[in-house]
Amino acid sequence: MTETIINEKSEIKRVSTYIDGVDDKLQGGIPLGHITLIAGAAGTMKSSICFNLLYNEALAGKIGLYISLEQTYTSLINHMINMDFDMSKVNIVVISDIAKLKEQIQVIKNLGKGALIITDLSALRKQVVGTDMNPTGDWLNVIKNIAKNVREQAGLDHFVLDSLSALYALSNFKDVRVKLFHIFEFFRDMDITSFLISEMPLDSSRYSEYGVEEYLSDGIISLQLTHRDRKEATEATIVKMRATNCNRDVFILKKDPQGFHALSKII
Ligand SMILES: Nc1ncnc2c1ncn2[C@@H]1O[C@H](COP(=O)(O)OP(=O)(O)OP(=O)(O)O)[C@@H](O)[C@H]1O
Ligand SMILES: [Mg+2]
């Protein structure tokens, strides 16, 4: 990685969260190159806020890769259309067959502007070769190869893995902690800004399955469902963000047709 020591803090480049009110809590945004865990319970809009970031960055000319192991790309796109994302405004490149990755990368290069690349479990499955010794195949390797190829050939700015939890379920890693160390090292070396979604139960006191991910990651944004005055909402906190003086106050994450907002109370 091209990690260098900066002379002053203004040199830290950041990407917006595209959630109205959150960048102010982060000195302007998430530092480029960071690996951020998006940890939360079911239905707390983990996928949506990651998609929102990649969508808006694609509009701004950046390339993002969204790997969806939890739901098919059709289900993901339909959900986002229902969330008022206008897919006609952005270059959505679906990789439904990894064997055709080269052609798809060429499409992105020809576009010469931002793109949101989406691939899913069934597309990856075609490339994952299981053996008797390792019946679950090497999902991680396939994911790494896609990211590496896109980065080398078209340029890659941002990466979303939805989710780390699904990767664990598929992979059946033997020495998980060592493997995790290498996963984080890989994304750091790629010099891209990464978002790893972590499924956490409501009552969990941790932000990840093994507890080490939260130390290996540069940032954690936690999302939980809350009930107040018989109203349900998603409560969010920036638990940590390295190289950032972040505001850890709990806020309510709200979505309306204009976008995502951070509110101080349920309305
Ligand atoms: N327009 C909307 N405004 C607010 N919430 C919405 C809207 N459309 C859908 N939702 C809610 O968003 C939630 C799902 O969002 P999303 O898929 O991003 O969450 P998630 O945390 O990734 O969920 P999962 O655990 O299923 O992966 C659902 O509970 C759904 O009811
Ligand atoms: Mg999701």
Describe the structure in your own words.
By secondary structure, this protein is an alpha/beta fold. The chain has a single domain, classed as P-loop containing nucleotide triphosphate hydrolases (Rossmann fold, 3-Layer(aba) Sandwich). Helix content is 30%, strand content 27%. Strands 2-13-12-11-10-4-9-8-5-7-6 form an 11-stranded mixed β-sheet, with helices on both faces. A two-stranded antiparallel ribbon has the order 1-3. The mean pLDDT is 92. Magnesium ion (MG) binds next to helix 1. Magnesium ion binds next to helix 1.
Descriptive tags:
single chain, 267 residues, alpha/beta, Rossmann fold, 11-stranded mixed beta sheet, 30% helix, binds adenosine-5'-triphosphate, binds magnesium ion
The gist of it:
The chain has 267 residues and is of the alpha/beta class.
What's the mean pLDDT score? 92
Report strand order across the widest sheet. 2-13-12-11-10-4-9-8-5-7-6
**What's the story with the biggest beta sheet?**
11 strands, mixed
Radius of gyration: 18 Å
Distinct small-molecule ligands in the complex: adenosine-5'-triphosphate, magnesium ion
Number of helices: 8
- Oligomeric composition of the shown chains: single chain
Query: Which spans have pLDDT < 50 for at least 5 consecutive residues?
Result: none
Order of helices and strands: EEEEHEHEHEHHEHHEHEEEE
Q: What is the strand content?
A: 25-35%
The CATH architecture name reads 3-Layer(aba) Sandwich
Could you give me the name of the CATH homologous superfamily?
Answer: P-loop containing nucleotide triphosphate hydrolases
